[in-house]
Amino acid sequence: MARTTTRNPLLLAAAGLALLAAGGAGWGGWSWYAAAHDESAAYAATRDEVLSAGEQAVQNLNTLDHRDLRRGLDTWRDSATGDLLTQLTAGRPEFERQIQQAKTVTTAKVLSGAVTELDTRTGRASVMVALRVTVTPPKGAPNAKESRMLGELTRTPQGWKLSALGQAPVGSAATG
Prior knowledge:
Elements: H1 9-36, H2 39-60, E1 64-65, H3 69-79, H4 82-102, E2 105-119, E3 124-136, E4 143-156, E5 159-167
Antiparallel strand pairs: 1-2, 2-3, 3-4, 4-5
Helix pairs in contact: 2-3, 3-4
């Protein structure tokens, strides 16, 4: 007489679930590894670093208090590199004189910012930053103005620094 073996359906189901769990864990591990070693993740982290450095530097160069002029101008110097640093250094004595005479306090607040260009290979980037700049004269009410600034950044051993800064054009320059 032939003997028939019956398999326990619960044992088969448990084995199937264990196999699925092992496969899911393997896929999840591979996905995590691939994401952690993906160049786009490193690029995104660099973009975030550039945006943060750019916003801070633009804010720094639009903030100055005549009562603590040396510290403010040192912050400007520490935020810049290249041609911009050269311009700030060369113009510092005249600028100090003008601010001491005007006795103004200028503060900037970043409203928004974006990286418009990033080349990690060459260490160059561009940002656009919207600011609200408030100038407080020695007498009278503070005057606030919103502006957009375009900045170029260069990677230095100390991090990303502004190498150029200017006003963003407003409106259309060309007419049909």
